[in-house]
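Q: What would this chain look like folded?
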Amino acid sequence: MPRLGLALVMVLVAVCGCGPSATTDSEERVTFIRDGLLLPGEARANVVLDVTTEGRTIKLTPALPVGGRTVFHFGWERGKRYELTLWSTDGSVVFLAAVTAPIRPEPLVVRTVPLEKVHAGSVTSGGEPDASLAFSADGTLLAVGTFGGYLRVFDTRTGGCVFEKRFPEAVIKRVAISEDDSRVYAGEMSYDGFVRAFDLKTKVELWRFRLADELETSRPARAHDFFALYSYPQVYCMRALGDDLVVDGFHSWTHGGKPRHLSRMYRFDGRTGVARWKWPADAPLPRNISWFDLDDEVVALSAYQWEAPAEGDKTPQAAIVLLDVASGKVLDRHRFEPLVPHFTTTPMWYGLAFDGFGHLAVGMMDGRGAVFDTHSEGGTPVLKLVRNLDLARPVEVTGVPVYAGAPWAAGSGNELYILTDGRLIAPSASAKGKTVRADHPAANTLFALEGATGKLLWRWKLTTTAQSVAAGRNLLVASTQQSFSPDDPMDYGLTAFDTAFTLPPPEEGDFPFGGRTAAAPIDKLLFRYHTAGPVVALAVSPDGKTIATVEAPVRLPDEMTVVGTYRLHILR
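A: My prediction, written as structure tokens:
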């Protein structure tokens, strides 16, 4: 009997009349995954699986082998009973007793890939190594940039590596793949700050652009300080757009004892490296452009600086700027004033994202948020404020103001998502040496918002310190990293949600704590996926079918024990 048929006979003995929970051997049972079934054994192409439910039968052929098992794609429903009949290659039939679909699927691990050896971060002081991830437009390719200077591209269906190059003098800070899958782009954090383009088939470098020529360069003040690397010029954000590449060039360093910042936006011809436009056009901006997102019409970017402005400095301290994606010209801007008395600036990080309909989510590091509508008025896109959000602004705990920043945002379909981070004490109190061992009530919380109105749809509290959020069609994933408090749980990994599963709307109330969420957000929960170490990079394919994440090693509070490794996980 063929290998798959024999394996299913073994499963039949284990589960007949008892459901799939009667077996504990994950290699010898039927597993329900997000888009089908996973059966033991590698099936041949002419094997057919009949799936019968409620008197209807569908015939399935193998989709792909994964780790000695075979995927059969089909859309199952929670709690429904299915009869599985396998027709083997010799015409014999192996019947598997009816199985009940679970409430939630299990993640399918396509492959885990060890990356290079890196230093371990610390639970108490941070310092985890960077990584960067980006999917191709159709989700079949995944670009990976690493702290050790590697640029790799993987086939997400098999986990095989199809491209690899190393740049030993650089951290590959950002990566992207052209929309036609012909080129891969790498953005460095290095003395030169190169942007590079490679032909994926020939592996030949097509062009490079040196950011340091316009943003200056610098040398770390302390040669062996991990954090000194971040004073190099770097690509802070990068997106493929048709045949082109949009880049955020960023340089923040100390010169003569004073902080300096230079940033500039670029749109390059992806084939030649010629800059179609730069913003600002005349000279780099003396601020940090920390992140951007774009659609077919506009680029929205956040510009700020961490420190209070110098006397006489009239440049806006924090603003969202809307650029025409074709020309790079400014269409609109919205300024944010500092949240006094606790803050003297309005810092922002990665908290900027569009949904699929021109609505923009903004998260700020003082605990505020906002939603904008960028639809055209009179033919010109604008930044129309839809709603201000009080996500995690300072509240007093035993007389000390605590808050949570809102550094991450994502969008998909008609929804926007903002994720807050962990325990923070407002600068107005920390400057006086005040401290408290308590989180803001909305720390490490994922907020799901209606894009058109900014209204709260649902929220989810993570178990430990948040790291990032990413979204694709019908899929939302949040990740966790190490906490800087040794008292917090080390619960590293991913939490995935089905955004297509509809919850009744919440009742109105004070955002975000008032009102109630009708039905439970737990109904949207797909699965938890645990990693041994903290997550340092996360991406979801545009079609929502594939998740990629990188974990890193971390030293526990004893500073001796290390958990986790620097490795890539590809999941479906």
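Residues 117-209+230-571 form a domain with the Methylamine Dehydrogenase; Chain H fold (CATH 2.130.10.10).
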